[in-house]
Amino acid sequence: MHRIEASQICTACSGRSTSHYPETVVVQAYEPGGRTVETVSLHGGYGYGVLTIPASYFHETATAKAGRRRITGFYTTGTLDD
Beta partners for 76? Predict the structure, then answer.
């Protein structure tokens, strides 16, 4: 898991275990050390809304240290401009 901050845009690593979440979300709130991340969906067929996703699903990159693609989770793809 990497540093999670508000305004990060995160994309799902795959459609498998995270398929019930939208593919792309924006981090709305996260308390350091917290177990969950509050996000807002950007798209994904479930409409716009606030979602609470486990903090353990957020990673620095879409791949594991061994170079294999992660099956679950989100990785940072950008940040919102203020």
Answer: 10
Angle ∠(60,63,68) on CA atoms, nearest 5: 160
CA 33 to CA 17: how far, in whole Å?
A: 24
What's the pTM? Answer: 0.81
List CB contacts of 48: < 8 A, sequence separation 6 or more: 40, 41
Tokens 């991340």 sit at which residue? 37
Residue 46 has what DSSP assignment?
Answer: S
Specify which residues 36 forms β-bridges with: 54
Please provide the distance, in angstroms rounded to a whole number, between the alpha carbons at the two ends of the chain.
25
pLDDT tens digits for range 55-79: 999 998 989 889 898 888 899 999 9
Q: Which of 20, 59, 55 is nearest to 39 (CA)?
A: 55
